[in-house]
Records
---
Amino acid sequence: MLQYISENSISRSNQLSPAINKGGSGRVRINMIRFIEDASERKKISRQILESLNEWFEIEDSRERYIAESADQPFWVSVNDDVYEGFLCLKETGKATMELAVMGVIKECHRKGIGRRLFAAAKDYAAIKGYEFIQVKTVRTGIYDDYDITNEFYKSLGFKELEVLPDYWDEANPCQIYIMSLKSAVATIATRHSYRGEYLRESVPDEDLITIAKAGIDAPSGCNKQTTDLIIVTDPDLLSKIKAVLDPPVARTAPAMIIVLTRRINAYRDRCFAIQDYSAAIENMLLAIVELGYQSCWYEGHITDEDRICDKVASILNVPDEYDLVCILPVGKAAESFHAPSKRPLSERVHINGF
């Protein structure tokens, strides 16, 4: 069974992101969340940490099973000055579901936000891979004080109670299953990142592309002038022609593209909201793309600067003169793992009742 001690501080993390803290001496220390690929290193890290947590991993057979299984599981570790502070593993339990298989943080690092940062990286990974849920198993609240703290930690992350299985382990340890959806709007926003890597050579079904385009045209539009139009491109010959004029080259392996067009239509007080319109449409489509298990990147400045690549693409697609081609969104499944950049803490960018 999985055990973890709760954390108080809240921080956002990705698969490779630093957090800067001050140690007891005032010296700046950098915490790094790393994704570990080497199987032997995974086992070494999990053994080192789990053997230091005998209060929660005292059953040797179970502990050894966690260590052995960690070698083949997606694995993240928190590192500080070459010291392993905590780790987390995921495992697939169904086509749509990942399970938080095991997580541990050394005792002297409890309540420092490490568990939250590890989970944030794992959650991003599961969402990017197209999973819809994360579950975790623990002991039902009311049995052990330590597990009660653990359960509050999971709920603070956003997990919801699914069910209790009284005999899953034994009668003395009823199994509580918590579940989290990765497909909520807020979760999708948190896990959307620009993808600039290679795409799998898998076609994107027309119905998915229509769903993405519909999300775009459903975006708000200033005074409802609806200044944004879209072109879905799946024809291999057209895609090849478009990719040939993109310089520097991008999205060379994307199996589909959505081309964003805009036109100037004046609205309130003779103002035109075309930029706001197409920006809202693009963001909606980027979220829909991630929701459906694909990846993309907003290419605008790349094609609308002095060399006017946008005009070359517009010519290929026979776009009428009254429209401007402003953006290309490649659509496809990621062929590469990628690491989202870290962001400044919320506390530095969000202000209440004034700056």
---
Amino acid sequence: MRINARGANQGAEEHSRSLIRKSAKRFSEKIMRKQRTRTGGVTAPAITPTASAPGARGWRDYALLLALACCWSSTYPLTKIGLGSIPPVTFISARSLVAALFLLVVLQIRGIRIPTDIKAWKLFAFQQTINSTIPFLVITWAQLYVPASNTVVLASTTPIFAFLITWAITRHEPASPLKFVGAILGLAGTVAIIGLDALSGFGKEIVAEIAILLATVSFACATIFGLRLSDYDPMVVAAGSLLFGGTVLLPVALVVDHPWTLHPTPQALVATVVMGIFSSAFGLMLFYMCLTRLGTLTTNAQGYLRIPIGVALSVILLGESVPSNLALGLLLVMAGVAAMTIPADTLKRWLRRL
């Protein structure tokens, strides 16, 4: 009788423990579902400034980097077309809102909700401010005084500033000398494509030129701060950031530009929509995907890839002339991008085979 009682007690205890384990499992799954909904479908832990660099990279990661360069290189000719009949503030606000609306529709189809907590929107707002709103406004103002070629060269220093900030301050990923050499080669290639004559005009409008450099520092900081948003789906971050940026600039556009009095051309309207969907929506989404997969320094290499692609699009869409040093500049740019993106061990193996 005692043996049967002891066995019955043990069976009851085991049954009780089993129920507790099942209840805990169901509770954990419920919490995870709530977390996925809040963060746009992603439950990965946040990447802090001291997190390690991304691990093994495949060809798909570099394909994303090339796609990002293609998206953002189209901003040069499309902006030139749009600004022909639309003022800068209205143009930036319109393309941001078009991009945000497009992404919100896609998120609705995917069944992902935009976060509503204050913490998330503070992150989105700060990221958009340092990555788009302030830099674009500053560069647009500076271009009233600085030639376009000089602006391109100055704006191409973003990878260098990102390297220096990573090496001296954040140290969130390895900042090897090879990557710094790559940044210098990429800048040299940019100068070669734009033309050495561009260097002769530096110093004439020193305040505007310093403003462009400060804007590039802001871009570099945005690529580092953007790692803090890795908790969220890249499309959620892009939609939230663009919605904030477009909404903030809308009252300014209404007061300063009086959009209802404008008469934009059909080409300008098409450029605004295409740039909003292609350059802003897809571009910003790819940007956050590359940050998570490739890290800060490698993602910044797309800034050099944009130059030859942007020149090619300008030749095709705007009928501009082909730069005389395009081949040399393209060679330097590709060498710089290779140094910044290809792992050192892989690069050494390739060089031994030559």
